[in-house]
Amino acid sequence: MNRNNVYILEDRGLLYINGDDAKEFLQNIITNNIENVSENRSCFSALLTPQGKYLYDFIIIKHKSGYFLDCEKKIIENLYSQLNLYKLRSKVDILNLSNEFVVANLTKEKFLEIENSKDELGFTIKFREDPIFLDPRYSKLGARLVINLEKLYLSIKKLGLKVSDVTEYYNFSHELGIAQIDTNNLQDKIFGIECNFEELNGIDFRKGCYVGQENTARIKLKDKLNKRLFAIKVLDGEINSEEITSENKNIGKLLINNKNPFALLKLENKNFNFDADIRCGGAKVKVLKPSWF
């Protein structure tokens, strides 16, 4: 991607969580450690079912007295409702600010040109009083700017950026093996740890309890991780089935079926044969090997 490109992620939404108990509230339910989130550090995290299955993932950014949750917009109302279920009597306010704020992505190279920036995952600075940070999942994803919609285009101009087709960004994310579109299709079908959240810095195994912690820790400690979510690419034909096969054996299931598909695939002795002849229904597919695997 061109270093001066910027991608406006209109499919992302923003919840704002604040109040006297906001920090403790998040710490008790999310997979990562909220203690690591500050004015200078953002993090990737998730909310799981009590059984450790995937529900939602998001990036957490400190903002004023509270926290932004940057998540896929199509799930934001459900996430809002889920958080309210856990709120009980906590002194917490949860606001949907998706109509006021927007998320934009720029390249890592451009981020590092900004004063006071650092090449550290999640490192966060302010640009015209708005948080901008290196993606905490993987630095090749670039940086994200969370900004009031009214200020967006002036900031883009001041940064010398060119608005580009967001499809390019999501195609690149797919090549890196990081799912960001239609993640609702993963809900309650896959363990959070199978989504590669450990490799993407989304789970802190040293923090205290959170929702789904028991099964997540058991899979990790007993070395029971035998499936993973991988990006797949259609080489020929058409996907008309969810079943993934190799040598007529079932090796997994298609979970996200869009222009950038993802499948949950079985591992053999912690490995996967990325060069195998693999099919998904009537399509010949290739499983993309992420550099972090």
Structural summary, described in words:
The protein has 293 residues and is of the alpha+beta class. It folds into two domains: 171 residues, Gyrase A, domain 2 (2-Layer Sandwich), CATH 3.30.1360; 68 residues, Elongation Factor Tu (Ef-tu), domain 3, CATH 2.40.30. Helix content is 16%, strand content 33%. It has six helices and 17 strands. The strands form three sheets. Strands 8-9-10-7-1-11 form a six-stranded mixed sheet, sandwiched between helices. The longest helix is centred in the N-terminal third of the chain and has 12 residues. The model has no long low-confidence stretch (mean pLDDT 96).
CATH superfamily of the largest domain: Probable tRNA modification gtpase trme, domain 1
Q: Based on the structure given, which CATH architecture of the largest domain is correct?
A: 2-Layer Sandwich
Count of domain modules: 2
How many DSSP H or I helices?
A: 6
> What general form does the structure show?
globular
Order of helices and strands: EEHEEEHEEHEEEHEHHEEEEEE
Characteristics:
single chain; 293 residues; alpha+beta; Gyrase A, domain 2; Elongation Factor Tu (Ef-tu), domain 3; 2 domains; 6-stranded mixed beta sheet; 6-stranded antiparallel barrel; 6 helices; 17 strands; globular
Fold topology:
Blueprint: E1 5-9, E2 12-18, H1 22-27, E3 43-48, E4 54-63, E5 66-72, H2 76-87, E6 93-96, E7 101-106, H3 108-111, E8 124-127, E9 130-134, E10 143-148, H4 152-158, E11 162-163, H5 166-175, H6 213-221, E12 227-236, E13 243-246, E14 249-256, E15 262-266, E16 278-280, E17 283-287
Parallel strand pairs: 1-11
Antiparallel strand pairs: 1-7, 2-5, 2-6, 3-4, 4-5, 7-10, 8-9, 9-10, 12-15, 12-17, 13-14, 13-16, 14-15, 16-17
